Amino acid sequence: MLKLLVVEDHALVREGLVRLLGQIEPGAQVQESPDFESALNVLDNEGEFDLVLLDLALPGIDGFAGLDILRRRYPAMPVAVVSAFDDTPTITRVLHLGASGFIPKAFSGDALLAAVREILAGNIFRPNGQSAARLDDATPVPPPSKGGVRPDEIGLTDRQGQVLCLMVRGLSNRDIADQLGLSEGTVKIHATAVFKALGVSSRTQALVAVARYGVDFESVF
């Protein structure tokens, strides 16, 4: 019998997901938890589930940290993130942390069920419909990544990664231009591309996004 666990703090969303997932196959058992601590209690008491659907915006814990904990404690149990934050950096980091898929909350019920079936079939689901290679007994589950994402993994060029790195260090556009041997206008063009990739509109928001996604600048210079 299929066992699914929904971890979602908003009751209306959680109840809707439980009802929807109950349609995935006859006899499917769908349990729910309103927070991460209660989800761990369910898992500790009842053993592993066929799939956990985890919201990123849970009270009391950073969603990425919660995902990392689940992947380390239950490395063989698939965990799919269901979130309204469906920007590229979030999706990339979620998959880096070992999630079996990312399902946007904007999906229709049919699309969500199709995504869940894809994951249950052993595939990694991405919201653009492109799946990674199927996981089977010969393909070990990759360990969760301790770090964040490289700039190129969120669509930044090498130069854009360098510009963002120097922004994080507090350099002005003029200082960045001097350091990289560029014109100030070119730096502004790169900065605009960086903001677009991060889904932000200012330096301050970019710095918050870098911290949230754990962008790793080790390879940019």
Give the key terms.
five-stranded parallel β-sheet; 45% helix; 10% strand; Arc Repressor Mutant, subunit A; Rossmann fold
Task: Give an account of the 3D structure.
It is elongated and about 65 Å long. It has 9 helices and 5 strands. Residues 129-146 have low confidence and may be disordered. By secondary structure, the protein is an alpha/beta fold. It has a 5-stranded parallel beta sheet, with helices on both faces. The chain starts with a strand and ends in an 8-residue tail after the last helix. It has 2 domains: 3-120, Response regulator (Rossmann fold, 3-Layer(aba) Sandwich); 151-213, Orthogonal Bundle (Arc Repressor Mutant, subunit A). Helix 4 (88-96) links the parallel strand 4 (79-83) and strand 5 (101-104). Helix content is 45%, strand content 10%.
User: Which ranges are low-confidence, i.e. pLDDT below 50, for 5 or more consecutive residues?
Assistant: 129-146
For the record, the count of structural domains works out to 2
Number of helices: 9
Whole-angstrom Rg: 19 Å
**Can you say what the CATH homologous superfamily of the largest domain is?**
Response regulator
Largest sheet: 5 strands, parallel
CATH topology of the largest domain: Rossmann fold
* Percent strand: 5-15%
> What topology, given as strand order, has the largest sheet?
2-1-3-4-5
